[in-house]
Sequence to fold (161 residues):
Amino acid sequence: MITVAVLTLSDKGSKGEREDLSGPLIQNILKGINGEIRFYDVLPDEKELIKGKLIEYAEKVDLILTTGGTGLSPRDVTPDATIEVIDRQVTGIAEAMRFEGYKKTKRAMLSRAVAGVRGRTLIINLPGSPKAVKENLEVIIDILPHAIEKIKGDPSECGTQ
Fold:
């Protein structure tokens, strides 16, 4: 069982002016990897609030998935907040999501999403749109259980013969 926190970052969503479709979609997709959603919140695009919530969740779950705030607009600060709280980056995850996304739209190269580890928790930034969330999760979903096992200290070898 992988324990999960889902954090949607949206000024309008946090005020109830826009329904969050991506957060619930993430929760539904994670059922396929035996993910147990322990926390779900919608916050405004405020860097300090995001950092605080990531730090709080990282003490309680194996995986934090954020959605929203990964683009180029001035209010898109999710990657910045994430970088400030992680201990180390897992660049291959974000690279893979951008690489596969680019095959569908050149705008994928504008994503600033990052992935990294804080303590024993994996944190991954996903885009805000439900379509992009689904496409990005499809790219990484199969590696999540193994990544979390490794982060928790699984000593087995990663390579196969």
